[in-house]
């Protein structure tokens, strides 16, 4: 059996440094996940990821600092007030957050993220960050994962010691969330104007998403010129409407993240998948996350006892997939990568 000629030509153009077009991205997405063409796409994704990071994968670590019902009502999120998972608002103390971050440092995480729910008071987040940052090693890469903010907020994040932010225009944004996609894009622009590096992802992917939306969100992610792209699947929150729709398989996600990798091209250093899995790492995911504290895909406020992965486990997954793992501060979030 021979590879589809058109698929091979598209992949070859991507590997040769050419930006593939939106119709070509769409064509790659239509390839069955279990097929010779898909494995060819995944192999190309892996080679591109190896080139952009000189063969080194990374493990980043996120501390979720609070739980509670969030009025933004993202239906895929355990914090959504309508999902009735967390009924009371709770915030970790700065001392506990520092302890968790330092533990991640000791475990060898290449970057530390602070995550808060979208309704968390921005000023309080900045205040916590200003206490955490001095307690970390000077070289530790510090990343924010928060709700939307304006240009003044972006400057405040920069002044608090953050190198960058994670932000995405999610699948279903404005339909299954009470957040305007335009606000998400404004936040990305504000972050970049302040000199913050931006990581993003095509997420959360579920079987309910049409091909056209996958293509559009991939295009948007590429236009953000992030330091990493990738894809993450929607994890079912028990008892919710979206849970009834099931989940995309890890095999299906491996194909999707590989297409996103080729669409991003060599100018984007990192390629992520979430939650961590070996199939994704084989298919070109060079970035996995460890997590503790809260987690929007978990019903346990201590995700480290349930869905959250440790740094050690993430490193094992990457190693089993044949990756060398970076020791030291993240290279994905180095400005010279851009």
UniProtKB/TrEMBL annotation:
Molecular function via GO: catalytic activity; iron-sulfur cluster binding; metal ion binding
InterPro entries in the cross-refs: Aldolase_TIM (IPR013785), rSAM (IPR007197), rSAM_sf (IPR058240)
Annotated ranges, domain Radical SAM core: 55-267
Top-level taxon of origin: Bacteria
SUPFAM superfamilies: Radical SAM enzymes
Keywords, ordered alphabetically: Iron, Iron-sulfur, Metal-binding, S-adenosyl-L-methionine
Record-given protein name: Biotin synthase
Organism expressing this protein natively: Desulfoscipio geothermicus DSM 3669
């Amino acid at each position: 059996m021979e590879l589809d000629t058109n698929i091979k030509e598209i992949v070859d153009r991507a590997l040769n440094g050419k930006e593939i077009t939106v119709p070509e991205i769409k064509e790659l997405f239509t390839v069955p996940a279990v097929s010779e063409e898909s494995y060819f796409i995944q192999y190309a994704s892996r080679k591109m990821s190896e080139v952009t990071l000189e063969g080194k994968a990374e493990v980043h670590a996120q501390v979720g600092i609070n739980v509670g019902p969030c009025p933004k009502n993202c239906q895929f999120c355990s914090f959504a007030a309508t999902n009735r998972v967390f009924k009371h608002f709770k915030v970790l103390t700065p001392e506990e957050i520092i302890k968790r971050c330092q533990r991640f440092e000791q475990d060898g995480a290449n970057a530390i993220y602070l995550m808060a729910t979208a309704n968390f008071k921005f000023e309080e987040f900045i205040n916590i960050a200003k206490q955490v940052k001095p307690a970390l090693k000077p070289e530790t890469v510090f990343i924010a994962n928060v709700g939307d903010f304006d240009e003044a907020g972006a400057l405040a994040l920069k002044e608090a010691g953050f190198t960058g932010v994670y932000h995405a225009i999610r699948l279903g944004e404005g339909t299954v969330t009470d957040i305007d996609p335009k606000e998400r894009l404004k936040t990305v622009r504000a972050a970049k104007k302040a000199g913050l590096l931006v990581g993003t992802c095509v997420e959360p992917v579920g079987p309910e998403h049409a091909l056209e939306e996958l293509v559009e969100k991939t295009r948007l992610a590429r236009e953000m010129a992030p330091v990493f792209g990738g894809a993450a699947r929607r994890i079912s929150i028990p008892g919710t409407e979206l849970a009834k729709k099931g989940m995309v398989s890890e095999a299906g996600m491996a194909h999707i993240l590989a297409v996103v990798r080729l669409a991003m091209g060599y100018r984007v250093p990192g390629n992520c998948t979430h939650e961590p899995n070996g199939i994704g790492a084989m298919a070109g995911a060079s970035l996995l996350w460890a997590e503790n504290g809260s987690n929007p895909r978990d019903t346990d406020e201590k995700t480290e006892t349930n869905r959250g992965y440790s740094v050690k486990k993430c490193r094992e997954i990457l190693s089993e997939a044949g990756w060398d793992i970076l020791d030291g501060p993240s290279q994905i979030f180095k400005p010279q990568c851009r």
